[in-house]
Amino acid sequence: MSDDGTNRDTTPAQSRYDQARYVENGEYEPLLSEKDLTRIAIGSEDDGNGDDGKTTDSPLPDDLTRDALELPELSEPELARHYTRLSQMIYGIDSGPYPLGSCTMKYNPKFTEDVAALPSAAVHPDRSEGSIQGTLELLYRLQDYLGRIGGMDAVTLQPPAGAAGEFVGIRVAAAYHEHNGEGHRDDVIVPESAHGTNFASAALGGYDVVSLPSDDEGRVDLEALEAALSENTAALMLTNPNTLGLFERDIAEIADMVHDVGGLLYYDGANLNALLGRARPGDMGFDVMHYNVHKTFATPHGGGGPGAGPVGVVEKLAPFLPAPRVRERAEPSQSGEPVYERFEPEHTIGKVHGFDGNWLVLVKTFAYIARLGDDGLADASASAVLNANYLAEEIDYEIPYGPFHHEFVASAGEQDAADVAKRMLDYGVHPPTTKWPEIVPEALMTEPTEIESKDTLDRLAAAFNAVANEDDDTLEAAPERTTARRIDQTSAARNPRLSWQALADES
Amino acid sequence: MHGSHTTGSPYAPHTAEDRTAMLEAVDAETVEDLFDIPAAVRFDGQFDIDARTERETRRLVRSVLGRNDDCTELLGRGHYGYYIPSLVDHLADRSEFLTSYTQYQPEISQGFLQALFEYQSLLVELTGLEIANCSIYDAATALGEAATLADRVRDTSGHRVLVPELMREERKSTLANYVAGTDLVVEAYPVDDGTVDLAGLDTAVDEDVVMVYAENPTVRGTIEEQLEAIGDLAADVDAFFALGSDPIALSLLERPADVGADVVVGDASVLGLPTSYGMGLGLFATKEDYLRQVPGRLVGVSEDATDRRAFTLTLQTREQHIRRERATSNICTNQAWVALRTAIHAAVLGPSGMVDLAKRAVTRAEALAERVDDIVGVQAPVHDRRHFREFVAHVDQPASAVAADLERLGFAVHVVGDHEIQLCVAGVPDEELDRFVEALEEVAR
């Protein structure tokens, strides 16, 4: 598979790895546009380009139509090969371990794709309530599942991703304060080590973001929190366990402090996979939370999305949730079956998605939770925490903060964490998240999840340790065995070429 | 073992021996010792959710969704049920596409990056604008992002966002939430017989306008005939012209760049996704001038260490994981896999297939309007305009009664007024339309 004509193997024998690589005329897999471009001229007018193109008539007058459309025109077999080759140039969860910290890259059970593809799931959102009782029932039951898992009183399934869920939380907080005549609250407090989306979601909601430093042990600094809290505090956004994998032991006190100044406590659900069945945000004093279903509940990441970011709230915030939600009617149907209906919460913030969110993702979420049940969910967390602790024990890099749960943050020390990651690719494993959180120098944020066996963790640890003992030159030259070699980020940003049209203009 | 495992997670592969060895290695007696949770906040209860086998779970979901009535949907208004070629499902379901993360390690993600680059290129061709991102969630959230983009790049202190009085209320409400944290206010401008009332818009436009939004086709299926004039009105006051459309409509209707659009939003999943209860794919394209203010991910071209062309996410300093509260948007997870499906569907159709599909959206909708207009008690189309995919029909009977009667006969239609129903032909086979006409004849008189 190597195209440079050598069989040089500098990695240990037990971890040979070569990713698929296609090379044609000195380039990797050609673009569709390099395989074909066909121009279809539309309407009666000759656009002077008719020789190598085709012309089609139009049912509309020329002033309502475009002149032409130029795109690849390829046969189905050619397309099947194109996309199959592209897929072979991607590393997915089914390719090998994927310990990206904070991302919870679990195995995605195949059967969930089958249930999402059921013809009975393919309904239009404008159907009458009476004719889509199945869809409404599934949504109702998922609202209920999530409420129990998070210890929340009411749930909306509308937010289409975690960040969208954060934004809903922020908007709900704003509406709540406004409703209570406290619209002056304009601060949202976010720990320094939080996910970037927390800051951005608060800012999108119009809030001033107050950044909160950690204490020496990597947790919320209560004195700093005391100083940050005021009558202008709208909310504190917190992840627990935090991004270092540490449980915020003072959570009950933190909740009291926030509530004492009239603020709300927001739970970022990114790390919920650590706590299933052992602690619930609602019991810790959180007022509003989002669930990352593509993390905790194993819906596929799909190369960046779609996700879903349901939001749960305590009773007092329920009237502000997005509309519609789904409830069960008091009266069953004539045949005794429960009847479900949409309703608009009393002081709703309105819509945050054009319809009801990422339905197909919600079906997969429901199926995953229904499959695992109490035992499976509790075991997922137990095994995830065991795996993180075991892996940490087996690797040579220093891990400055603990005790951690489902993830840990090691330090690459004198090595560059980004280079460590590139080198790990040569050992057939996905590297951890790097250089974040910044509290750990050259951070390697590692989350193996519950799906890895001891053998796989041993292999993963061997990859970490092999790289830990390699010199900087080797790291800087990595990766060697992947489809593409190290990619120049600076050139991409300095000279942006974002379409095949831009490439054609260049040549 | 497969499918019958009901204790513990069926996807955690640990044997009892492994577990013991691992606990020994980390010096813990039980796995519970690894949890550092104060007793006061520990959860000792149960969720009361039963575990099920894979087979039982499938049966459960099938049985719940089985309560949905099977019917022929003549529904549209922003969400469409086109036929999806089998190739789309089979290729997109390859697990490397489905189970990979965002492409932060581009060296092992070239395939997805290339597919997204090709998706961006598809939108560049359709819109004529230079920049398209890898996706926003849906049409409504893309509209919200367009307004905040306009707010960032426009110099003046204006704060008014103008939208047509006839559009999906859900989109307007989503837009209102997106701008709630800014100084922007959303106002409606008048519509005349289903398309923009140009004189009314002219009256509404002033120096305080940041963005003018129009749709083509409109929510009522009409084709907007005065796009260029709308663009001119916006340009005269240096406001953004945001145009809502979709890839099938854009295959035939006027090219946004030719009518002065600054940004194009809409639902790109009209290609790629079947009817999915409103799940979509936010199309977002704009001019190169605004490149550094664009929300969402962008795939660009670079070179690798062997000087071969390679793809990578680029200009990430716009994004939340780098720029935090100063990011251009809070978006992180997007709809990448749907974008892949859309790109594959477009490739299967090719340019001739896409134009043909768009042409049929005009001819089939207008043919159905003519047929139902012949029915006693029905007049169609209500608007004296050209139509794309759908149209509004007047019914002499109360529209809700007509819709309820049609539902009993197995057809779903929109009720959009006391005596107005809306009918969409997208994805509905001809023989089903024949049956529908018969049903409407039966219930409309």
Automatic annotation (TrEMBL), chain A:
InterPro entries from the UniProt entry: Aminotrans_V_dom, GDC-P_C, GDC_P, PyrdxlP-dep_Trfase, PyrdxlP-dep_Trfase_major, PyrdxlP-dep_Trfase_small
One GO MF term attached to the UniProt entry: glycine dehydrogenase (decarboxylating) activity
Reaction equations catalysed: N(6)-[(R)-lipoyl]-L-lysyl-[glycine-cleavage complex H protein] + glycine + H(+) = N(6)-[(R)-S(8)-aminomethyldihydrolipoyl]-L-lysyl-[glycine-cleavage complex H protein] + CO2
Domain Aminotransferase class V: 175-302
Enzyme Commission code(s) on record: 1.4.4.2
Region described as Disordered: spans on this chain: 1-65, 471-507
Enzyme class: oxidoreductase
Limits of the Glycine dehydrogenase C-terminal domain: 380-475
SUPFAM superfamilies for this protein: PLP-dependent transferases (SSF53383)
Family annotation (NCBIfam families): PRK04366.1
Entry protein name: glycine dehydrogenase (aminomethyl-transferring)
Organism of provenance: Natrinema limicola JCM 13563
TrEMBL record, chain B:
Lineage: Archaea, Methanobacteriati, Methanobacteriota, Stenosarchaea group, Halobacteria
Protein name: Glycine dehydrogenase subunit 1
EC numbers for this chain: 1.4.4.2
BP term (GO), one: nucleoside metabolic process
UniProt xrefs under Pfam families: GDC-P
GO molecular function, one term: glycine dehydrogenase (decarboxylating) activity
Taxonomy, superkingdom: Archaea
Organism encoding this protein: Natrinema limicola JCM 13563
Stretches assigned to coiled coil: none
Alphabetical UniProt keywords: Oxidoreductase
Positions of the Glycine cleavage system P-protein N-terminal domain: 11-424
Xref: PANTHER family: GLYCINE CLEAVAGE SYSTEM P-PROTEIN (PTHR42806), GLYCINE DEHYDROGENASE (DECARBOXYLATING) (PTHR42806:SF1)
Signal peptide: none
InterPro entries, alphabetized: GcvPA, GDC-P_N, PyrdxlP-dep_Trfase, PyrdxlP-dep_Trfase_major, PyrdxlP-dep_Trfase_small
Cited NCBIfam families: PRK00451.1
